[in-house]
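USER:
Class, as today's exercise, take the chain set out below, and explain how the chain folds.
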Amino acid sequence: MREFIHVPGKNRGKITLFALSTCGWCRKTKRFLDSLGVGYDYIDMDLVDRTESEKFRQEQAKWNPDCDFPTLVIHEKKCIVGYNEDEMLGALE
Protein backbone atom coordinates (compact mmCIF):
# COMPACT_ATOMS: atom_id res chain seq x y z
CA MET A 1 0.00 0.00 0.00
CA ARG A 2 1.39 3.36 -1.03
CA GLU A 3 1.55 6.14 1.54
CA PHE A 4 2.72 9.74 1.59
CA ILE A 5 6.49 10.09 1.46
CA HIS A 6 7.93 12.26 4.21
CA VAL A 7 10.74 14.70 3.43
CA PRO A 8 12.45 15.69 6.67
CA GLY A 9 13.09 19.33 7.49
CA LYS A 10 12.06 22.20 9.75
CA ASN A 11 8.62 21.70 11.21
CA ARG A 12 6.40 24.41 9.75
CA GLY A 13 3.20 22.54 10.47
CA LYS A 14 1.50 20.00 8.26
CA ILE A 15 2.45 20.46 4.61
CA THR A 16 1.05 18.03 2.05
CA LEU A 17 1.77 17.97 -1.67
CA PHE A 18 -0.26 16.09 -4.26
CA ALA A 19 1.95 15.78 -7.32
CA LEU A 20 2.72 13.84 -10.48
CA SER A 21 6.18 12.36 -11.01
CA THR A 22 6.14 13.60 -14.63
CA CYS A 23 5.02 17.18 -13.87
CA GLY A 24 7.70 19.87 -14.15
CA TRP A 25 5.77 22.27 -11.89
CA CYS A 26 5.42 19.53 -9.27
CA ARG A 27 9.18 18.88 -9.34
CA LYS A 28 9.79 22.62 -9.10
CA THR A 29 7.47 22.81 -6.05
CA LYS A 30 9.40 19.98 -4.35
CA ARG A 31 12.73 21.71 -5.10
CA PHE A 32 11.38 24.98 -3.71
CA LEU A 33 10.20 23.34 -0.48
CA ASP A 34 13.56 21.55 -0.25
CA SER A 35 15.41 24.87 -0.69
CA LEU A 36 13.42 26.30 2.23
CA GLY A 37 14.42 23.31 4.35
CA VAL A 38 10.86 22.57 5.47
CA GLY A 39 9.52 19.12 6.19
CA TYR A 40 6.59 17.98 4.06
CA ASP A 41 4.72 14.93 2.86
CA TYR A 42 4.00 14.21 -0.78
CA ILE A 43 2.41 11.62 -3.01
CA ASP A 44 3.04 11.17 -6.71
CA MET A 45 -0.48 10.34 -7.82
CA ASP A 46 0.60 8.72 -11.08
CA LEU A 47 2.65 6.14 -9.15
CA VAL A 48 -0.22 5.04 -6.91
CA ASP A 49 -1.90 1.75 -7.74
CA ARG A 50 -5.33 2.23 -9.33
CA THR A 51 -7.03 0.42 -6.47
CA GLU A 52 -5.54 2.90 -3.98
CA SER A 53 -5.70 6.06 -6.06
CA GLU A 54 -9.33 6.83 -5.20
CA LYS A 55 -8.42 7.31 -1.51
CA PHE A 56 -5.79 9.92 -2.37
CA ARG A 57 -7.94 11.57 -5.05
CA GLN A 58 -10.78 12.05 -2.55
CA GLU A 59 -8.37 13.67 -0.10
CA GLN A 60 -7.00 15.96 -2.82
CA ALA A 61 -10.52 16.84 -4.01
CA LYS A 62 -11.39 18.18 -0.54
CA TRP A 63 -8.94 21.00 -1.24
CA ASN A 64 -8.94 21.13 -5.03
CA PRO A 65 -12.11 19.69 -6.60
CA ASP A 66 -10.53 19.83 -10.07
CA CYS A 67 -7.57 17.76 -8.82
CA ASP A 68 -5.04 19.87 -10.72
CA PHE A 69 -1.30 19.56 -10.03
CA PRO A 70 0.56 20.50 -8.02
CA THR A 71 -1.86 20.82 -5.11
CA LEU A 72 -0.12 22.04 -1.96
CA VAL A 73 -2.05 22.03 1.32
CA ILE A 74 -0.51 24.04 4.17
CA HIS A 75 -1.61 23.64 7.80
CA GLU A 76 -4.86 22.05 6.57
CA LYS A 77 -6.10 25.61 6.05
CA LYS A 78 -4.60 26.93 2.82
CA CYS A 79 -4.52 25.30 -0.62
CA ILE A 80 -2.22 26.49 -3.39
CA VAL A 81 -2.85 25.06 -6.84
CA GLY A 82 -0.02 25.44 -9.32
CA TYR A 83 3.41 26.92 -8.72
CA ASN A 84 3.50 30.29 -6.96
CA GLU A 85 6.60 31.03 -4.86
CA ASP A 86 5.22 34.21 -3.29
CA GLU A 87 2.01 32.48 -2.21
CA MET A 88 3.96 29.52 -0.81
CA LEU A 89 6.32 31.79 1.13
CA GLY A 90 3.42 33.80 2.54
CA ALA A 91 1.57 30.69 3.66
CA LEU A 92 4.65 29.20 5.31
CA GLU A 93 5.46 32.29 7.41
In short: The longest helix spans residues 50-63. The two ends are 34 Å apart (CA to CA). The domain at 5-92 is CATH 3.40.30.10 (Glutaredoxin). The mean pLDDT is 94.
